[in-house]
Amino acid sequence: MKWLATLSLAVILALLALAAPPARAVEATDERGVTVTLARPPQRIVSLLPSLTESVCALGACERLVGVDRYSNWPGSVRALPRVGGGLDPNVEAIVALRPDMVLLARSSRVTQRLEALGLKVVALEPKNHADVRRVLDILGGLLGTGDAQRVWQAIDASVAAAAQSLPPGVRRTRVYFEVNSAPYAAGEVSFIGETLTRLGVRNIVPASLGPFPKLSPEYVVRADPDLIMVGERSGLGLEQRPGWAGIRAVREGRICRFTEAESDVLVRPGPRMGEAARLMANCLLEKGQ
Questions:
Q1: Strands 175-181 and 185-186
Q2: Do domains 21-147 and 167-288 have the same CATH topology?
Q3: Is the peptide bond before 184 cis (omega within 30 degrees of 0)?
Q4: What is the mean pLDDT of each run of 10 residues along the chain (290 residues)?
Q5: Pair 288, 178: CB distance under 8 Å
């Protein structure tokens, strides 16, 4: 009667499937103001922005990623995933071939409409400050159905607070210039980097009025005369040789923190590693600050 036992098991499984609750539809309104609806939480995700890749993983859904942009490198497991180009120049054919049920990309991406025309669900999110990071985590948590968004945000917030508490009062008066790249583009007060600096209690030489990541003239930095410069190793090459920069106090007194490429990745991505970024800044201030 082996066939009867097999038939009975098949019937039981079928009945369980009928009794199981249907997949829950999820939806979110992205930064374009477009509401994206999916029949169920996405199981095959392509991410074209490193901060979004990291956020998906922090929310416990790393295994759902099937492709990422060329710059996504954390956590280590994503390095084994197929690469589909950069955020500005993604390979549309490679994305389609991965059969994603959701594509995450920046609002500034140039391929959004093309991907949608091919029938893909696209969610555009591009966090630029702390409030954006929290909101993006909430949106992704809702789409993924993980319910972990508040836990992740609270961990970030607590880590930033701990970094601030590690600094003595004297260091907190330091006037800081944070260079994002050698154009030079700087992190202003209203950027996520600038907001972290504010929480650390230091003064940013780039005011909110200039925007989050303004391109500055080298003379601006010379006139501002910061006490401390934070810069990536690559961007900081030859910094002392820039016209007039030898007279800047930070340069004159060797108060320059040059971050490695891996550290720079942490610092310039608005996502779950912002607490680690705050610690890197705090360590710089403890070593080189007043």
A1: antiparallel
A2: yes
A3: yes
A4: 43 45 83 96 98 97 98 97 92 97 95 96 96 97 94 98 95 94 94 98 97 94 97 92 95 97 97 98 91
A5: no
Domain 21-147 classification at class level: alpha beta
Q: How far apart are CA 39 and CA 33, in angstroms?
A: 20
Domain ranges of the chain: 21-147, 167-288
Q: Does pTM surpass 0.85?
A: yes
Question: Locate tokens 């200039």: which residue?
Answer: 210
Tell me the two tokens of residue 99: 């059969």
Cα-based distances in Å from 174 to 168, 200, 237, 247, 284: 11, 10, 23, 18, 11
Report the topology of domain 167-288: Rossmann fold (3.40.50)
How far CA 233 is from CA of 160, 220, 254, in Å, comes to 23, 21, 15
